[in-house]
Design brief:
The structure holds two protein chains of two kinds. Chain A is built from seven helices and no strands. Chain A is globular, with a radius of gyration of 14 Å. The mean pLDDT of chain A is 90. Classes of the chains: A mainly alpha, B mainly alpha.
Chain lengths: 139, 143
Protein backbone atom coordinates (compact mmCIF):
# COMPACT_ATOMS: atom_id res chain seq x y z
CA UNK A 1 0.00 0.00 0.00
CA UNK A 2 2.88 2.34 0.68
CA UNK A 3 5.47 3.50 -1.88
CA UNK A 4 7.73 0.75 -3.08
CA UNK A 5 10.79 0.30 -5.28
CA UNK A 6 9.47 -2.76 -7.06
CA UNK A 7 8.71 -0.61 -10.12
CA UNK A 8 12.43 0.10 -10.35
CA UNK A 9 13.10 -3.49 -11.40
CA UNK A 10 13.44 -4.36 -15.08
CA UNK A 11 10.27 -5.34 -16.93
CA UNK A 12 11.40 -8.99 -17.06
CA UNK A 13 12.02 -8.96 -13.33
CA UNK A 14 8.64 -7.39 -12.59
CA UNK A 15 6.95 -10.09 -14.63
CA UNK A 16 8.93 -12.82 -12.84
CA UNK A 17 8.11 -11.17 -9.50
CA UNK A 18 4.37 -11.27 -10.29
CA UNK A 19 4.56 -14.87 -11.51
CA UNK A 20 6.39 -15.84 -8.35
CA UNK A 21 3.59 -14.30 -6.27
CA UNK A 22 1.08 -16.44 -8.15
CA UNK A 23 3.19 -19.51 -7.41
CA UNK A 24 3.34 -18.63 -3.72
CA UNK A 25 -0.39 -17.84 -3.47
CA UNK A 26 -1.43 -21.08 -5.13
CA UNK A 27 0.98 -23.40 -3.31
CA UNK A 28 -1.59 -24.34 -0.65
CA UNK A 29 -3.97 -25.51 -3.37
CA UNK A 30 -6.43 -22.66 -3.16
CA UNK A 31 -6.40 -19.09 -4.27
CA UNK A 32 -8.59 -16.87 -2.09
CA UNK A 33 -9.86 -13.41 -2.93
CA UNK A 34 -7.42 -11.71 -0.55
CA UNK A 35 -4.49 -13.28 -2.39
CA UNK A 36 -5.90 -12.13 -5.73
CA UNK A 37 -6.26 -8.61 -4.35
CA UNK A 38 -2.65 -8.67 -3.17
CA UNK A 39 -1.38 -9.95 -6.53
CA UNK A 40 -3.38 -7.34 -8.46
CA UNK A 41 -2.10 -4.68 -6.11
CA UNK A 42 1.52 -5.80 -6.57
CA UNK A 43 1.12 -5.88 -10.35
CA UNK A 44 -0.32 -2.37 -10.15
CA UNK A 45 2.48 -0.93 -8.09
CA UNK A 46 5.09 -2.56 -10.29
CA UNK A 47 3.28 -0.91 -13.22
CA UNK A 48 3.29 -4.09 -15.20
CA UNK A 49 2.01 -3.72 -18.76
CA UNK A 50 -1.72 -4.65 -19.01
CA UNK A 51 -0.95 -7.48 -21.46
CA UNK A 52 1.63 -8.91 -19.07
CA UNK A 53 -0.96 -8.78 -16.31
CA UNK A 54 -3.19 -10.94 -18.49
CA UNK A 55 -0.29 -13.39 -18.92
CA UNK A 56 0.15 -13.50 -15.14
CA UNK A 57 -3.58 -14.07 -14.58
CA UNK A 58 -3.39 -16.92 -17.08
CA UNK A 59 -0.85 -18.66 -14.86
CA UNK A 60 -3.21 -18.67 -11.87
CA UNK A 61 -4.19 -22.28 -12.57
CA UNK A 62 -0.74 -23.35 -13.75
CA UNK A 63 1.85 -21.35 -11.84
CA UNK A 64 5.47 -21.35 -12.96
CA UNK A 65 8.16 -23.04 -10.93
CA UNK A 66 9.71 -20.95 -8.18
CA UNK A 67 13.25 -21.58 -9.41
CA UNK A 68 12.40 -20.38 -12.92
CA UNK A 69 11.00 -17.11 -11.59
CA UNK A 70 13.87 -16.61 -9.16
CA UNK A 71 16.61 -17.08 -11.74
CA UNK A 72 15.32 -14.05 -13.66
CA UNK A 73 15.48 -11.82 -10.59
CA UNK A 74 18.53 -9.76 -9.59
CA UNK A 75 19.81 -9.94 -6.02
CA UNK A 76 17.67 -7.01 -4.88
CA UNK A 77 14.72 -8.38 -6.89
CA UNK A 78 15.05 -11.71 -5.08
CA UNK A 79 14.94 -9.98 -1.71
CA UNK A 80 11.89 -7.91 -2.63
CA UNK A 81 10.27 -11.09 -3.91
CA UNK A 82 10.94 -12.79 -0.58
CA UNK A 83 9.42 -9.87 1.31
CA UNK A 84 6.33 -9.84 -0.94
CA UNK A 85 6.00 -13.63 -0.80
CA UNK A 86 5.60 -13.34 2.97
CA UNK A 87 3.02 -10.57 2.49
CA UNK A 88 1.04 -12.63 -0.01
CA UNK A 89 1.16 -15.71 2.22
CA UNK A 90 -0.07 -13.74 5.23
CA UNK A 91 -3.04 -12.10 3.57
CA UNK A 92 -5.45 -15.03 3.91
CA UNK A 93 -4.98 -14.92 7.67
CA UNK A 94 -2.54 -17.75 8.29
CA UNK A 95 0.64 -19.32 6.98
CA UNK A 96 0.03 -22.76 5.53
CA UNK A 97 2.84 -25.33 5.98
CA UNK A 98 3.41 -25.38 2.23
CA UNK A 99 3.63 -21.60 2.18
CA UNK A 100 6.23 -21.62 4.95
CA UNK A 101 8.22 -24.24 3.04
CA UNK A 102 8.13 -22.25 -0.20
CA UNK A 103 9.14 -19.04 1.60
CA UNK A 104 12.08 -20.89 3.13
CA UNK A 105 13.07 -22.05 -0.34
CA UNK A 106 12.88 -18.49 -1.71
CA UNK A 107 14.96 -17.28 1.25
CA UNK A 108 17.61 -19.91 0.49
CA UNK A 109 17.80 -18.88 -3.16
CA UNK A 110 17.95 -15.21 -2.10
CA UNK A 111 20.65 -16.14 0.42
CA UNK A 112 18.66 -14.71 3.31
CA UNK A 113 19.37 -16.24 6.72
CA UNK A 114 16.76 -17.47 9.19
CA UNK A 115 17.17 -14.53 11.54
CA UNK A 116 16.50 -12.01 8.78
CA UNK A 117 13.57 -14.08 7.58
CA UNK A 118 12.10 -13.86 11.09
CA UNK A 119 12.49 -10.10 10.92
CA UNK A 120 10.58 -10.08 7.65
CA UNK A 121 7.76 -12.10 9.23
CA UNK A 122 7.69 -9.58 12.08
CA UNK A 123 7.69 -6.71 9.63
CA UNK A 124 4.63 -8.19 7.91
CA UNK A 125 2.91 -8.53 11.28
CA UNK A 126 3.62 -4.86 11.94
CA UNK A 127 1.80 -4.09 8.68
CA UNK A 128 -1.46 -5.22 10.21
CA UNK A 129 -0.81 -2.93 13.16
CA UNK A 130 -0.18 0.09 10.92
CA UNK A 131 -3.22 -0.73 8.82
CA UNK A 132 -5.53 -1.24 11.77
CA UNK A 133 -4.74 2.25 12.98
CA UNK A 134 -6.30 3.63 9.81
CA UNK A 135 -9.25 1.28 10.19
CA UNK A 136 -9.80 2.47 13.75
CA UNK A 137 -9.83 6.02 12.51
CA UNK A 138 -12.13 5.30 9.61
CA UNK A 139 -14.85 3.38 11.47
CA UNK B 1 -7.32 -11.54 6.76
CA UNK B 2 -6.17 -8.81 4.44
CA UNK B 3 -6.66 -5.59 6.38
CA UNK B 4 -7.76 -3.65 3.33
CA UNK B 5 -11.47 -3.72 2.54
CA UNK B 6 -11.71 -1.83 -0.75
CA UNK B 7 -12.50 -5.02 -2.65
CA UNK B 8 -15.55 -5.57 -0.45
CA UNK B 9 -17.25 -2.39 -1.60
CA UNK B 10 -19.85 -2.59 -4.35
CA UNK B 11 -18.61 -2.44 -7.93
CA UNK B 12 -20.11 1.02 -8.39
CA UNK B 13 -18.44 2.30 -5.24
CA UNK B 14 -15.07 0.90 -6.25
CA UNK B 15 -15.45 2.74 -9.53
CA UNK B 16 -16.29 6.01 -7.76
CA UNK B 17 -13.38 5.39 -5.38
CA UNK B 18 -11.02 5.06 -8.34
CA UNK B 19 -12.44 8.19 -10.00
CA UNK B 20 -11.67 10.16 -6.87
CA UNK B 21 -8.12 8.84 -6.93
CA UNK B 22 -7.83 9.90 -10.57
CA UNK B 23 -9.09 13.33 -9.64
CA UNK B 24 -6.57 13.63 -6.84
CA UNK B 25 -3.70 12.51 -9.04
CA UNK B 26 -4.25 15.51 -11.30
CA UNK B 27 -4.85 18.22 -8.72
CA UNK B 28 -1.34 19.63 -8.92
CA UNK B 29 -1.25 19.13 -12.73
CA UNK B 30 1.68 16.77 -12.42
CA UNK B 31 1.68 13.01 -12.41
CA UNK B 32 4.91 11.56 -11.08
CA UNK B 33 5.98 7.93 -11.44
CA UNK B 34 5.44 7.48 -7.69
CA UNK B 35 1.89 8.79 -7.92
CA UNK B 36 1.19 6.63 -10.96
CA UNK B 37 2.54 3.53 -9.17
CA UNK B 38 0.38 4.29 -6.15
CA UNK B 39 -2.63 4.90 -8.40
CA UNK B 40 -2.13 1.60 -10.25
CA UNK B 41 -1.62 -0.25 -7.00
CA UNK B 42 -4.90 1.05 -5.59
CA UNK B 43 -6.71 0.21 -8.86
CA UNK B 44 -5.37 -3.33 -8.49
CA UNK B 45 -6.69 -3.54 -4.95
CA UNK B 46 -10.11 -2.37 -6.12
CA UNK B 47 -10.34 -5.35 -8.49
CA UNK B 48 -11.90 -3.26 -11.23
CA UNK B 49 -12.89 -4.85 -14.50
CA UNK B 50 -10.62 -4.16 -17.51
CA UNK B 51 -13.34 -1.91 -18.99
CA UNK B 52 -13.60 0.08 -15.76
CA UNK B 53 -9.82 0.43 -15.62
CA UNK B 54 -9.85 1.82 -19.13
CA UNK B 55 -12.48 4.40 -18.12
CA UNK B 56 -10.45 5.29 -15.03
CA UNK B 57 -7.31 5.80 -17.09
CA UNK B 58 -9.33 8.14 -19.31
CA UNK B 59 -10.47 9.95 -16.16
CA UNK B 60 -6.83 10.42 -15.36
CA UNK B 61 -6.45 12.41 -18.59
CA UNK B 62 -9.65 14.41 -18.10
CA UNK B 63 -10.63 14.17 -14.45
CA UNK B 64 -14.34 14.47 -13.61
CA UNK B 65 -15.51 17.27 -11.26
CA UNK B 66 -14.94 16.55 -7.56
CA UNK B 67 -18.69 16.65 -6.78
CA UNK B 68 -19.29 13.93 -9.33
CA UNK B 69 -16.59 11.71 -7.82
CA UNK B 70 -17.94 12.16 -4.30
CA UNK B 71 -21.58 11.60 -5.28
CA UNK B 72 -21.15 7.86 -5.81
CA UNK B 73 -19.49 7.11 -2.48
CA UNK B 74 -21.17 5.80 0.66
CA UNK B 75 -19.82 6.94 4.05
CA UNK B 76 -17.56 3.90 4.35
CA UNK B 77 -16.30 4.12 0.76
CA UNK B 78 -15.77 7.85 1.21
CA UNK B 79 -13.60 7.35 4.27
CA UNK B 80 -11.53 4.66 2.57
CA UNK B 81 -11.18 6.89 -0.47
CA UNK B 82 -10.10 9.77 1.75
CA UNK B 83 -7.38 7.63 3.32
CA UNK B 84 -6.11 6.61 -0.11
CA UNK B 85 -6.23 10.06 -1.68
CA UNK B 86 -4.08 11.24 1.22
CA UNK B 87 -1.63 8.46 0.34
CA UNK B 88 -1.79 9.50 -3.31
CA UNK B 89 -1.20 13.15 -2.46
CA UNK B 90 1.80 12.23 -0.33
CA UNK B 91 3.25 9.78 -2.87
CA UNK B 92 5.55 12.39 -4.45
CA UNK B 93 6.93 13.37 -1.06
CA UNK B 94 4.91 16.53 -0.44
CA UNK B 95 1.28 17.55 -0.05
CA UNK B 96 0.96 20.97 -1.63
CA UNK B 97 -1.64 23.64 -0.84
CA UNK B 98 -3.92 22.74 -3.76
CA UNK B 99 -3.98 19.13 -2.62
CA UNK B 100 -4.65 20.15 0.99
CA UNK B 101 -7.54 22.30 -0.17
CA UNK B 102 -9.14 19.38 -2.02
CA UNK B 103 -8.55 17.05 0.91
CA UNK B 104 -10.27 19.56 3.22
CA UNK B 105 -13.23 19.70 0.81
CA UNK B 106 -13.52 15.90 0.89
CA UNK B 107 -13.31 15.88 4.68
CA UNK B 108 -16.05 18.52 4.89
CA UNK B 109 -18.22 16.57 2.43
CA UNK B 110 -17.84 13.43 4.57
CA UNK B 111 -18.61 15.36 7.76
CA UNK B 112 -15.39 14.23 9.44
CA UNK B 113 -13.62 16.15 12.24
CA UNK B 114 -11.29 19.01 11.36
CA UNK B 115 -8.20 17.16 12.58
CA UNK B 116 -8.82 14.26 10.13
CA UNK B 117 -6.23 15.43 7.62
CA UNK B 118 -3.58 15.84 10.28
CA UNK B 119 -4.30 12.37 11.66
CA UNK B 120 -4.23 10.76 8.23
CA UNK B 121 -0.98 12.49 7.30
CA UNK B 122 0.54 11.29 10.56
CA UNK B 123 -0.62 7.77 9.77
CA UNK B 124 0.81 8.07 6.26
CA UNK B 125 4.21 9.01 7.66
CA UNK B 126 4.01 6.02 9.99
CA UNK B 127 3.23 3.79 7.01
CA UNK B 128 6.16 5.17 5.04
CA UNK B 129 8.42 4.51 8.01
CA UNK B 130 7.12 0.95 8.18
CA UNK B 131 7.87 0.48 4.48
CA UNK B 132 11.35 1.90 4.98
CA UNK B 133 11.96 -0.49 7.88
CA UNK B 134 11.31 -3.34 5.44
CA UNK B 135 14.01 -1.96 3.16
CA UNK B 136 16.33 -1.57 6.12
CA UNK B 137 15.99 -5.28 6.83
CA UNK B 138 16.72 -6.10 3.17
CA UNK B 139 19.58 -3.60 2.96
CA UNK B 140 21.25 -5.01 6.04
CA UNK B 141 21.78 -8.15 4.02
CA UNK B 142 23.90 -6.31 1.51
CA UNK B 143 26.30 -4.93 4.13
Amino acid sequence: MFPDMVNGLTIEERLAHAQLMVAVASVDGELVQEELVMIESLMGKSMLHPEMRVDVRNTLNHPLEIEKCMEILSNSGKKMALRDAVLVSACDGEYDKKEIRIIKKIAEIAEVDTETLSQIYQWVEDYWGVYNKSTNFLT
Amino acid sequence: MLPDTIHKLSREERFSYARLLAFMARVDNELTVDEMAMFEQRLGTALLSPKQRELIRQALKTPPPLDECLAGLSDEAGRLALRDVVLMAAADGTVDDDEKEVLSEIIAHLGLPDDSLERLLKWTVEGYNWMQSGYDILNDLAE
